[in-house]
Write a structure and sequence with these properties.
Elements lengths: L1 E8 L3 H10 L10 E3 L2 E5 L11 E6 L19 E4 L2 E4 L4 H13 L6 E5 L12 E5 L7 E6 L2 E6 L10 H8 L7 E4 L8 H6 L3 E6 L2 H13 L6 E5 L2 H4 L7 E6 L9 H7 E14 L5 H11 L3 E15 L2 E12 L1
Parallel strand pairs: 6-7, 11-12, 11-14, 12-13, 14-15
Antiparallel strand pairs: 1-3, 1-4, 2-3, 5-6, 7-8, 9-10, 15-17, 16-17
């Protein structure tokens, strides 16, 4: 049967499928086709597909009907997958239990179901979890695949968000071979590792020691250990050792990135691109970040804002945004 679908390179397939799923436009009634290195992902509404994707019409076989969680509960479920771990966010105990049971009974490939039990807290950016399905010390550990890379992660020990996959890929696509890339808050390496795979020399710093252990493992897992340096520590205490080194700096700590701008300028070379993440009110989402960067960098650097981009809605009337800023030493 001829249906609309998104044509995407195979290595990008899971991240693109996840983004289409966020918009609830993946056509589960038809199979995903694979041909000559491309996936063809069927969609229910081609008008709702983001403009950057290639929409085509193609004959795809109908999928054998599989039961999904939404068919087993009497409410609209919300969940996200990280490897073979499924994460839910339910305050109601009975509803959380019902959803976990539905996930376990469905065709969704899930080894563990976790419910968020606290907000992200502390400098190490971790949260508590309620294990609804799964057991053993490795219940919160998984391997997540994203744009052709694999990332081992323990959700109880480190911060990781699959929702940022598209944004990470947007930044990594700008990285050129031979660049020096510095991630100031690197986590398990979802920006560092793919940057190294594109031929960069990459340094990742994180105050969470477990995250740095996973970063080293993930660099080995993806074959880039020789191009990655992983450092456990506060980047403000590390920056002087890498002064004037970076061609590109990732600052994804949106609640407090402005507190680390002095360190970013220590790291920056004569010409450097800064990816600065912020959370601000929708009335002026970019102004405060740009003002902070200019106050820290001028007059020593010429500041050029190359991109103002909204990553996602963070809370009512609040946006998670990024500024891609070029710094040229005067």
């Amino acid at each position: 049967m001829s249906v609309p679908c998104v044509r995407v390179a195979r290595e990008d397939g899971e991240a693109v499928r996840a983004r289409l799923a966020e918009r609830d436009i993946v056509d589960d009634a038809h199979e995903i086709a694979v041909e000559e290195g491309y996936l063809y992902i069927p969609v229910t509404d081609p008008r709702a597909v983001p403009d950057e994707y290639d929409v085509r019409t193609r004959d795809l076989p109908q999928r054998d009907r599989q039961t999904m969680p939404a068919e087993l509960v009497d409410f609209a479920p919300s969940y996200e997958r990280i490897g073979d771990v499924v994460v839910v966010d339910e305050d109601d105990t009975e509803r959380a239990r019902a959803l976990a049971d539905a996930i376990a009974e469905s065709a969704l490939p899930a080894r563990t179901v976790l419910n968020r039990a606290s907000k992200i807290r502390g400098t190490e950016r971790v949260r508590d979890w309620e294990v609804l399905v799964g057991e053993g010390p490795d219940a919160t550990e998984t391997v997540h695949r994203e744009y052709g890379c694999e990332f081992a992660v323990d959700l109880a020990e480190v911060y990781f968000s699959p929702r940022l996959a598209t944004e990470r890929h947007r930044v990594v696509e700008q990285v050129g071979a031979g660049e020096h890339v510095f991630d100031m808050f690197a986590g398990v390496g979802p920006s560092v590792v793919p940057a190294a795979r594109r031929g960069a020399t990459a340094v990742g710093v994180d105050i969470n020691g477990t995250a740095i252990e996973y970063l080293r493992e993930n660099a080995r897992r993806n074959g880039v250990a020789d191009h990655v340096t992983a450092i456990h520590g506060d980047v403000r205490e590390v920056a002087a050792d890498w002064a004037d080194w970076a061609d590109r700096i990732v600052m994804n700590l949106p609640h407090s990135a402005d507190e680390f701008l002095a360190s970013a300028l220590t790291l920056a070379g004569d010409s450097c691109v800064l990816h600065y993440y912020d959370i601000q009110h929708e009335d002026d989402p970019y102004g405060p970040g740009e003002a902070a960067i200019r106050a820290a960098a001028e007059p020593d650097y010429e500041v050029t804002v190359e991109t103002r981009h909204t990553v996602r809605s963070y809370a009512p009337h609040e946006l998670n945004v990024v500024l891609d800023v070029r710094l040229d030493r005067v």
